[in-house]
Design brief:
- By secondary structure, the chain is an alpha/beta fold.
- The protein has two domains: 154 residues, no CATH class; 250 residues, Rossmann fold, CATH 3.40.50.1460.
- 54% of the residues lie in helices and 10% in strands.
- It contains 14 helices and ten strands.
- The chain has a six-stranded mixed beta sheet, with helices on both faces.
- The longest helix is centred in the first third of the chain and has 25 residues.
């Protein structure tokens, strides 16, 4: 026999409120502020269930039913909310298969609707209501859910006050000087010598990983691979607007043209690395509130051709980056992409220093191998292991090289990966 008590109702009410507060805090990124209106909005549903219980107890003349709907709803809600907290926490740590992230919000909504309809169904069945009455009550419950969701969706228990993106005046006027200075610092190539020129592009400003990756890789190329004085980074990120030129189609075109003017086109080579989010045939350029044009394969190929740069190594790390291969490939170009044309790539988060491919290729393989081909092979294997461990669909990184570049690359790599003996000798100071 069911004998619910006020103490049980209060206990589960407090526990449910705590579980919902925990979920809201996790969903806010753990940076929100407590919003009492959100807690009041949550309490609306057990309050409605309590009113329904009072009505039912009077209808069937059974006072014990008064607290049952509210108590049953709170028990269901607490358990479901704790499950959602676990899912949210695992998602924050990138422990869930990537494919699930698109469906998690829908799953949470379905669970909330199910728990409310389940309470209604249990009572309608036990009290032997006619089918038409069950249907009406179900529809009324769904309608109430929709109205409630629309009215409280902007009032979570932990609320983050979203600030509209802005571009400070000093940063706005600093940008032309930053770009011009970066272009002026690109040095000439030397006759009969091979030099590598590095250009890095961080496309999306709303995730820290892209700017972190570009800055780390540029430093790696400048110090390890000899591109100091022949490198440039174009970065979209709020923290770098007073320090580095932003990435846009305009700045990319100007930088490529400048590199083409400064380099020895017969013996020097460009290493272009681009990292961002992407869609098929699109590399995302975002720096809100600026409205930036996106980079597509045709535009990038035309811009590279117009720059006059002959030898090119192009590495693109973004979802669906393989869709750029067909447009960029030619006899003098090596194209490396983090994913196939129909696959996503992984590792993009504010907590990460590199994307999966960026870490595997630059931070690991290029420090351990002495050719780009060996570095790519190692990185591809490493990324596959990481993706398999996370349950992700394989990204399938791509390597496409032109026949002229395939013959020329070993000669070019002698400058990029000098023999260990040469490095050791250059590190020893000359005798006085």
């Amino acid at each position: 026999m069911v004998r619910p008590s006020i103490l049980q109702l209060v206990f589960w009410g407090i526990l449910g409120g705590c579980a919902n507060s925990l979920f809201s805090w996790l969903s806010s990124g753990r940076i929100g502020e407590f919003n009492s209106q959100g807690l009041i909005s949550y309490a609306l549903w057990p309050f409605i269930a309590l009113i329904v219980g009072i009505f039912l107890s009077q209808r069937v003349n059974n006072p014990r039913l008064m607290l049952v709907p509210a108590l049953l709803w709170l028990v269901l809600d607490t358990h479901i909310m704790l499950f959602q907290c676990l899912i949210q926490y695992l998602g924050d740590l990138d422990y869930l298969p990537y494919i699930l992230y698109d469906y998690i919000p829908t799953l949470f909504i379905i669970l909330f609707v199910w728990q409310s309809l389940a309470v209604v169904w249990v009572f309608s069945r036990e009290l032997k209501w006619p089918w038409w009455e069950r249907a009406l009550i179900m529809l009324a419950t769904l309608f109430t859910l929709v109205v409630w969701q629309m009215s409280v969706k902007d009032q979570p228990i932990w609320k983050v006050d979203e600030q509209p993106p802005s571009f400070a005046e000093d940063a706005f006027y600093a940008q032309p000087n930053l770009l011009n200075k970066a272009l002026e610092n690109i040095e000439f190539g030397e006759f009969a010598q091979t030099h590598w020129y590095f250009m890095g592009v961080a496309g999306a400003s709303y995730q820290d990983v892209f700017q972190s990756e570009i800055q780390r890789i540029k430093e790696q190329f400048d110090t390890r691979f000899g591109t100091y004085g022949r490198s440039i980074a174009l970065v979209n990120h709020p923290a770098t607007r007073l320090e580095m030129p932003i990435a846009s189609r305009t700045s990319m075109e100007m930088a490529l043209r400048r590199i083409g003017q400064q380099m020895n086109r017969e013996s020097d080579v460009l290493f272009l690395y681009m990292t961002s989010h992407g869609l098929p045939n699109e590399f995302e350029m975002e720096n809100a509130p600026l409205d930036l044009a996106q980079v597509d394969p045709k535009w990038l190929r035309d811009t590279l051709d117009a720059s006059g740069i002959r030898w090119r190594v192009i590495v693109i790390s973004s979802c669906y980056s393989g869709s750029f291969v067909s447009a960029l490939q030619n006899e003098n170009t090596l194209v490396i992409t983090a994913s196939a044309a129909d696959r996503q790539s992984f590792g993009c988060s504010n907590e990460a220093d590199y994307t999966y491919f960026g870490r595997a290729f630059f931070d690991e393989a290029m420090r351990e191998q002495s050719t780009l081909k060996d570095a790519f092979a190692q990185a591809k294997e490493t990324v596959a292991k990481w993706e398999s461990a996370q349950g992700f669909e394989p990204s399938e990184p791509q390597w496409v090289i032109g026949k002229n570049m395939e013959l020329m690359l070993p000669q070019l790599e002698q400058r990029l990966f000098p023999p260990a003996t040469t490095v050791a000798q250059s590190a020893v100071p000359a005798a006085p």
